[in-house]
Amino acid sequence: MQQLVILDCFTVEPSGLGVPPYLSTYVRNAWSALRRARPEADVRYVTIDDVRWCLAGGKPTVEPPQSDPFTYSTTVNRDAAIQLLRDAEIVVVIAGDAVPSVHLHAVNGSFEEISRALACARGRRYLLGPLSTYALAAPAEYAGLFDAVHTHTVTSDDLLLGSRHPAAYGRMQRERDSFTGLVEQMPWRPIAELELYRGCTRRKFCDFCNEPAKSPLVAFREADDVVAEAAELYAAGVRNMRLGQQTCFFSYRNRDEDAIRALLGGIRQRCPDLEVLHIDNADPLAVAAPVGLRIAKLVADYCTEGNCAPMGIESFDPAVIARNTLTCTPEILMRAVEHVNVAGAARGPGGLPMLLPGLNLIYGLPGETHGTHVANLRGLADIFDAGLLCHRTNLRLARAFPGTPLAALGALEPLPSAEQFPSWKADIDFTWDQPMKERVYPTGLRVPGLHSYFIGQGGTWWRRLGSYSIQIVERDAAVPRGTTGDLVVTGHAPRLIYGERVASAS
């Protein structure tokens, strides 16, 4: 029997996450394309963690009971990963970070690791995912590594040739294959990322954003198609889903309230026992509009608690906003945050708010001065002083993605954040993030339905699956991975909270 391999080195984009337990659109796309191209073949799903496991002699890189982020996401194929690569007629590599990312439990595959893994492969090698953009921008560096590159999608027809444009959604729908064989190779409970559309609905694009470079034209999926894919995942055993692989959930079908109701209602009808249904990414301009409040109420009504609508203000500094075509002002953001709070601040049966906003801030954009940080602190203080709730804040340094206006500027004069970012981040951690954690997760709050997922030197990390789920640390404990239980909040830090176990499910 022919052997085909998907080598998942994990992906991170502003509009989508492909780090386990997230099951990315890229992995499912590759699975369907390979199944259609070679229906008689045996398709195996292998992670970069499987490869690391084999190369380390079949053991973790840290001493148990500590969790090892380098081999955390091994599959049922971990002991045979190298042999599978050697025997495979085709290897599809899925990789690439479009934005910087750090994960407690995972380390994305590096260029060196991918090269080392592919040195074991004797068949044809193909690339899919954000790394393809870097490979095309620096062909000499990647010469000889891949036989063909796919920038957006792969189909059974263009698998061997490569592709530079995404396949039409109708074609993707016809190619889709049962996901049961894929999910069975994952020993974790996956949360499937679902895509609603490509491109950005704004008339002006932010200079740093990779989405217009990735998909310059907007193309929406039909709600029935999304619901059908959700049902196929559900049939494969997936009980956790996120509508996150797009720039703004609220802008689906140009903010069509009826289409969003049909989408969410259809998923709920076809997937009645979902444990998690969340969203990701929200344009504050859409959320601040009158229809944004109504859509937020739909999300709170149909989705599960602990949901997050992350919004990119990116900067509160008017000079940075104007210089980088950001379009969102502090006033618009305040209205958007208010809308989400009105719709979703009420707590669900598990103790968490149904839907809260998240905030994204980027340092290192052209026009930045020391005053930029002051403006950010003031803007966050205004939201806090208004008594509003916020789920999480993401701070990062800008990265020039190939094809964006920011990349076209080339080398810039060093900006203050190049030196000050760690201290500026600490300012926001302790003046905004920690006080907000204390407001959203007060001491004494009981949070049920958690599972232990990582053991570190400070204790055991607990969480629920979902969009940017809160991490609760049980100090000085080493609880086996996958244990379920309830914790009561006992303390707070900027990026996590502390808790004590009060009950465990069997």
UniProtKB/TrEMBL annotation:
Residues 190-427 form the Elp3/MiaA/NifB-like radical SAM core domain. GO terms for molecular function: catalytic activity; iron-sulfur cluster binding. It holds the Pfam family Radical_SAM. InterPro entries: Elp3/MiaA/NifB-like_rSAM, rSAM, rSAM_horseshoe, rSAM_sf. It comes from the Bacteria. Signal peptide: none annotated. This is Radical SAM superfamily enzyme with C-terminal helix-hairpin-helix motif. It comes from Streptomyces zagrosensis. The lineage of its organism: Bacteria, Bacillati, Actinomycetota, Actinomycetes, Kitasatosporales.
